[in-house]
Write a structure and sequence with these properties.
The protein is α+β, with helices and mostly antiparallel strands. It is 23% helix and 28% strand. A hairpin with a 3-residue loop joins β5 and β6. The chain is elongated, with a radius of gyration of 22 Å.
Length: 316
């Protein structure tokens, strides 16, 4: 399908401060990123009749000229009724600018690379009255728990500033790791570097060339062959908690990417069918209002804990 006419789009105040490339990705759904950067580089996109760079920050009232481009035909995948009800039941918090969702394990936060329907696409269908739903942050597909979704551009910007400052947003995760996590081990601080394999799979590794990353930990309960810990990421790197646990020598159970094969096999035999990582609480202040939310541990994880043995008292 070809958008045959030049479009002139007046920027609404809700999109003030958004980068031009991100604005175009929203306006030109189905157009590859490479094509968007190509038309920007060639000067086919204009802002107020002048050329603009991809990182140009839009101002309310700007007029963006969008050239004719070919848009890939995409069949809209309808949200199944069961998923729609799951998502409605998963709303932990809502106000006029923010949704917090208890995302189930196995649901990606957004579609792409073989995933036709993610959390954000599902939310836009389930709540069509909210015109500007945007993910505030990501959560791995296999991780369950709290995900923030902005209903207003202003709220998105405000929380992004808090996240960038590494203060003001308190995120806590529950993880069951292999082995006996030492009570005195309260943090893991190692640099992490993204790496893409030939298959296209994204992996993260500890590397001195990587970016600074820090996670704080607290031991909650020790089991015979595992430990339940609370993890508080101070930085927000990809797969941070999972790689930090691995690098400390206590990989998360059920982690097919960074876990221990023998420990995973043992826990699977006891009934664990997923990654034991859950974003269980969020606390932040938005527009002067404190928001604190907790997502209870999913039933399948809670039941797994009841099936594994506590350590004997002596010598522990």
């Amino acid at each position: 399908m070809v958008n045959a006419k030049v479009k002139l789009i007046a920027v609404d105040a809700a999109f003030e401060g958004q980068r031009l490339d991100n604005f175009l990705m929203r306006e030109l759904k189905g157009v590859p990123k490479s094509k968007i950067y190509n038309i920007l580089r060639r000067g086919e996109v204009r802002v107020n009749k002048g050329r603009a760079k991809p990182d140009y920050k839009l101002v309310a009232g700007d007029v963006v000229r969008v050239p004719p481009v070919r848009i890939a035909e995409r069949e809209t995948v309808a949200v199944p009724k069961t998923l729609e009800q799951t998502i409605r039941d998963a709303v932990l918090y809502e106000d006029d600018g923010l949704l917090i969702i208890n995302k189930p394990s196995g649901l990606a936060v957004h579609g792409g690379s073989g995933v036709s329907l993610g959390l954000i696409e599902s939310l836009r269908q389930v709540f069509p009255e909210y015109r500007q739903l945007e993910l505030v942050h990501r959560l791995d597909r296999d991780t369950s728990g709290c995900v923030m979704v902005a209903k207003k551009r202003s709220v998105l910007k405000e929380i992004h500033e808090l996240l960038k400052a590494k203060q003001g947003v308190d995120k806590r995760y529950l993880a069951l790791v292999a082995g006996k996590w030492p009570a005195r081990k309260r943090q893991v601080k190692v640099a992490l570097e993204k790496n893409h394999l030939r298959s296209g799979e994204r992996m993260v590794r500890v590397s001195p060339e990587g970016k600074f990353s820090l996670t704080e930990y607290q031991l909650l309960q020790r089991y015979r062959d595992a430990s339940l810990v609370e993890a508080k990421p101070i930085t927000g790197r990809t797969h941070q908690i999972r790689v930090h646990c691995q690098s400390a020598g206590y990989p998360i159970l059920g982690d097919d990417k960074y876990g221990d094969e023998e420990a995973n096999k043992h826990s699977k035999g006891l009934g664990l069918r997923r990654l034991f990582l859950h974003a269980h609480s969020l606390s932040l202040v938005v527009s002067g209002r404190r928001i604190s939310v907790e997502a209870p541990l999913p039933d399948e994880l809670q039941q797994f804990l009841t099936r594994i043995e506590l350590p004997a008292q002596q010598g522990e």
